[in-house]
Amino acid sequence: MDSIVREALFNQVRSWMLDAGTLIKDRIDDPLIVGTKSHANDLVTEVDQEVEKFFSEKIKQYYEDHLLLSEEGYGDDLQDTNGTIWIIDPIDGTMNFVNQRRNFAISVGIYHEGIGEIGFIYDVMANNLYSAMRDGGAFKNDRKLPMLNPEANLEESIICLNHYWLCENNIVNEKVMQSLVKRARGTRTYGSAALEFAHVAEGIVGAYLTLRLEPWDIAAGRIIVREVGGLTTDIDGNEVGMLDKSSIITGNSNVHSKILNDYLKNAKKESV
Ligand code: IPD
Ligand code: CA
Ligand code: CA
Predict the structure, then answer these.
(1) Reported pTM
(2) Among 94, 175, 182, 220, which is disulfide-ready with 109 (CB 3.0 to 4.6 Å)?
(3) Among protein residues, the one whose CA lies closest to atom 15 of ligand 1
(4) Ligand 1: residues within 6 Å at CB?
C-alpha cells in the first residue's frame, strides 16, 4: 500500500475508533441484551453488533472496494487475502464488558494483499488508543512506544495465559506449563486478547500465550507488536496466516524464544 494512502486511511480509522468508543461509553450504564453463540460463555450483546455495524457502514460508504472480516455477521465472505481487508473485533473481551463494564477493547487491523498495514486497539474505558502503521512505529495515544528490550528475561517478566493451560487437557502437558509459571515473575489473565497484545507492545507484559484465537483477535495486535520488535507465532513457532484460527504466542523476542524452546516444544501431547 502506498504510504500516502496508508497515512490517510490511518487518520480516518483513528477518528472512527474514537467515535465507536463514544458509542460504547454512551451505552455503558444501560442494561444489556446478552446472547450466547457457540457455548454458554461465548457472549454477544447488541453493543458488539452496533459497533460492528458502525464500521461496516462507514467502510461501505467511504471505501467501497475494501472488504470486511468481522465477528458478528456484518462482514464479507472472504476466500483469500486479495485486496484491502479490514479485520474487526467490535468488542474484544465481551465477558469483561458484560460483567465488569471495563477491560475490553475495539480491535481493527487493516491488511493489503495479506500484509498488515494498520493496527488499532482501543481500551475504551481507560481511554488508551494503541496504534501502528507498517514501518512507522507503534503508539499509545500520542506517545511513541520504545522498542522492546531484546534481552528481557523470563524471570523478570509477567506472562499472560489462561488457566486452561494449567489444568489437565489434551493439548499441552500441564506439568511443563506449571514449571513455566513458576519460572516467570508472575502471570496475569486479562480476558481480552487484543489488550494482552497491546500490553506486550507496551512492554508491561513479556509474552501472551493462548491456545486458539480467531483472525479478528490477532489482526491488529500483531501489527502493533511487530512495530516494537516483538514476535508473534503459533505455539509451534510457525507464522500465522491472516485468515488462520490459531494458537498464539506473542512477546518480546527473547521471552518468546525461551518459552517456545524451553517449554512449548516439550509440552505438546502426542495426540496433537
Ligand atoms: C475473546 C477474548 C478472550 C480470549 C477468547 C476470545 P471475545 O474474545 O479475547 O480473552 O481468550 O479466546 O474469543 O469473544 O470477547 O471477542
Ligand atoms: Ca475477540
Ligand atoms: Ca468480540
Answers:
(1) 0.96
(2) 220
(3) 93
(4) 89, 92-95, 162, 191-193, 210, 213, 217
